[in-house]
Each structure stands twice: as C-alpha cells, then as structure tokens.
C-alpha cells in the first residue's frame, strides 16, 4: 500500500474516538442471525462501539479509488450509480422496470423516432440552482460530441419546445434508449468543465463535500434535495486496498467493506456477509483479426494477433476450460460460470450456456485445425506457437487470480498463456493485439452491441477485439432498432446463435468468459441496505447505488 494511504489510515483512526470493536460482540456471521448479547441488543447505534460516529453517519470502503469520478465523460452512471449524486431522466427499479426521475412522464411516437418528456419543476442542484431542460440537453449533446463511451449517435436532435418539456428526435428507433435514459447523469450546463470531477455538482440525494483521490470521498445530504430525506446524513468512502479495509473493519474504523471472495467467509464480530447476484463477468478478450489486417486503432495502437484470431484457439478454450473450477477455487463458490457479456439478463441466449471442461474434444478440435502438439507441450501451426500474452491489472486481486487459473487450465490443451502484470494505462495500448483479463456486465444489452459492432472497434473500451461478423451485425441492428420488445429479444438471441453462427460460445465469440461473480461485502449486521436488484459490473458502486435508502435495521433501534 502507498505510504500516503498508510499515513492517512493512521490519522483517520486517531481522529475517531474510543478504540472499541466496530461490529459489536456478536459472533453470528449469518445474514439472518440475531444478536446473542442482550446488552448489545439494547444499545443504540449512535452510542455503540463505532469509534464515536453518530448513528446517522457511516464509513465504507469499496476499493482504492472512486471509479468514474462522478463525470459522465468518464462513464459515471453507466453502471446504475448515478442516482447517488445526480438525477437522470428515467431510473431503474430493483426489478429493472423503468420509471420516471426528472421526467414526470414520457411518450414515444408510433414510429419510435420522437420521444417527448414532461419534466418536474422542483429539482435543484446542490448549489441551489434549478435543474432545467437546458441542462439535460447539454448533458446529452456533450456526450454525443465526446463520442468515447456512450453510444448516443442515433440521436438526431434535441429540442425544448417549451419550459419543462423536451423532445428527442432519433435517426432510427432504439430499443435500448430507455435503459440509457436511466443511466446518463444530468450535469449543470453552466458549471461543467474539464475539472468537473474535482467539484461535481448534481441534483441527487447526496453531494460530494470532499474528494481526495488518494484518501477519501465524503458525501453529505444535498440541502436542496427534493425527495425523502436520507437516514444517513453523511457517509465517507475511505480508499483502502482489500487487506487494509478488512483490518479497518475489524478495528472499528469502517462499518462495511467490499470483500474479495477469499475474505467473504471470514467471521468478524457483529458483522455479516452481504452477498448479491450480479451479471458482472470476467474472462479473456481475444483479438479477432490477424496482425496486419488493420493498420491501427483510431487511437493509433497496434491491432491483431495471429494466435487469438484463429477460431479454433478461441473455441478450444471456450469448451476446454472448467468454469466451475474457477468459481470454486478463485471465487470460493461465490458466483457462477459465465458465457456472455450479457449473462443473467433476458437478452442472454440460454442455449449458449454450454457444457465445458471437454478437454479431449478441445484437443481434437485443435488437431483438426492443424495445431500440432510440440515437444514442450505447446502446440504449433506452420511454425507459429499457440502462445499469447494475457495482460491483467496487478492492483485487482480477483482478476490476477483468474488470470493465473486460466493460464493453468490452458496448459493441458497445449496453449501457452504468458501472464503480464500491468495497469490500465498500458493495457489500453495493448487491448487490440493481446488478450486482456476483461470484464463487463450492464443491466441492458447495450454492452453486447458495442462490444461486437465493427463501427465501434477501438473506440475507447468498445469492441477492443475488432470483432466483425456481418450476420451478427445484421441481427444486432434489427434488435436495437426494433419498436417491439419481443422482436428485439428474438434478434438479441439470434445474434448470439442462429444455428450456424453468432457471437457466443457456440459461434465465433471473441472472448472466453469464465465467471459471473457474486458481489460480496462484510459489514455491521444491523445495516439495512434496502432492496438490491441484480448488480451490474462494478462491485464498488453496485451496493451503494441506493444508499439514500439505507438505515439501521429495526433490531438496532
């Protein structure tokens, strides 16, 4: 851990009061466990052993950084976290229904090209200024112009015909637009600039009162919040790596932490495991084209790999890997096998959830494709070894462990995976010519579309493999431009497998997805985290997305 963070943690502990245990004296680590200590049952949260914190304050640790830093140009909002500090036009319920947020109501024309929104007039930013249609218009047009992460090019124009009313005119129908309308944060037109992350202004239930990227982020109730007053008036995210966070939980300095799977079953007095199913997947991204087929990415990075571009290599790994073993050994059972970037949502084609661990079949497939096993156990074809580099971020312990397990499982197939510990800055330059320990998972099929759309190849983190299957593209276009939800669902499924081809384990998938992991947290057993739906990618924001609804449970009163 960096020296500055060690010093910060020491200072943080000293600032807090009595050195008592954060989570009481209850040894019961079960989700539904009752307090064993009768004295502890009678103790109010604000008076108990939480290092002097008031009952309406919390301290959490969900990782070493605040992902996306409140800025939609950095993808803030894409994973359902925007509603902590911002408003959106629409919002998702825990069961994935779409309801109004800043929009009181909306209607869609029969041809799907005109979306009309009637807006509330009582939303205010944390600086007291009203949220207006102009702010919404600016937020979307800014992201369209930026063009890096949000697929919004289908919007033709945005018009404000009258106060508190606006119209989105689309170039073509968009079946995923409602989901995106629930993700894009509304930022203030007059205060947004390149330094927005340092002083974010939003209209959500909380505002950011302090953000030190090396230490912590402090959130306080937005004094101009229009909705129900949150129970917790202040909460602090201390930026700690996993081991230090666990120590801080045990010592009483933190109330709830993100837990990597290997810590998930650890017992901490008075605490319990919070575990939620997700569609947060991990696997290998495999460059789809050969070296030299594409000059370079839009950002000037090299493209292509002669090994991973061979469909037999990708197919062999997809059928030969033992996904359940990865779940059992790396995730300690806290997850499930994964087969797609849209695993576990309705648009996923369940037919593509194949039986794996078919090692003999994978070997036979490679033999027929001309990959002959060499003396050192690594296959060769026309003088080319079945070997490629797999980059993974060393600061992410989970991805590190999955990378190691994947390399071990590839050896019996005769495929050599060379592990390269790295960071995201370097990995961005290697993403199109080497495999990455990749991740994904949103609560809508937009990520499937951008991951397999040739027009999105190499734009930021979209379609990093340069995948291009004309039939898949045809199905995706029919799905995403459909006005009928059932028709859209049919084409999403066909894009994955139509009986002959598709972007799936049965087709020419440019990835080897391995696991869909449950998001696990350890925290004070008296915290009520409200209704949590399926979590999307990003364990950090996923639990916190509804923190305005958190409170102490009844038994803690």
List the helices and strands and how they pair.
Layout: H1 3-15, H2 38-41, E1 57-61, E2 90-92, E3 98-100, E4 103-108, E5 114-119, H3 133-146, E6 155-162, E7 165-170, H4 177-181, E8 206-212, E9 216-221, E10 234-238, H5 242-251, E11 256-258, E12 271-276, E13 281-285, H6 311-320, H7 323-329, E14 335-337, H8 359-368, E15 372-373, E16 379-381, E17 384-385, E18 387-393, H9 397-410, E19 416-422, H10 424-430, E20 435-440, H11 446-452, H12 470-480, H13 485-496, E21 511-517, E22 519-524, E23 527-528, H14 539-544, E24 551-552
Parallel strand pairs: 1-10, 1-11, 18-19, 18-20
Antiparallel strand pairs: 2-3, 4-5, 5-7, 6-7, 8-9, 9-10, 11-22, 12-22, 13-20, 13-21, 14-21, 15-16, 16-17, 23-24
Helix pairs in contact: 6-8, 12-13
In short:
This protein has 14 helices and 24 strands. The protein is an alpha+beta fold and 557 residues long.
Give a description of the structure.
The chain is an alpha+beta fold and 557 residues long. It is built from 14 helices and 24 strands. The protein has helices at residues 3-15, 38-41, 133-146, 177-181, 242-251, 311-320, 323-329, 359-368, 397-410, 424-430, 446-452, 470-480, 485-496, 539-544, and strands spanning 57-61, 90-92, 98-100, 103-108, 114-119, 155-162, 165-170, 206-212, 216-221, 234-238, 256-258, 271-276, 281-285, 335-337, 372-373, 379-381, 384-385, 387-393, 416-422, 435-440, 511-517, 519-524, 527-528, 551-552. The strands form six sheets. Strands 8-9-10-1-11-22-12 form a seven-stranded mixed β-sheet. Strands 14-21-13-20-18-19 form a six-stranded mixed β-sheet. Strands 4-5-7-6 form a four-stranded antiparallel β-sheet, with helices on one face. Helix 6 (311-320) runs antiparallel to helix 8 (359-368) and helix 12 runs antiparallel to helix 13. It is globular and about 70 Å long. It starts with a helix and ends in a 5-residue tail after the last strand. The relative contact order is 0.16. The model is unreliable at 1-22 and 24-43 (pLDDT under 50).
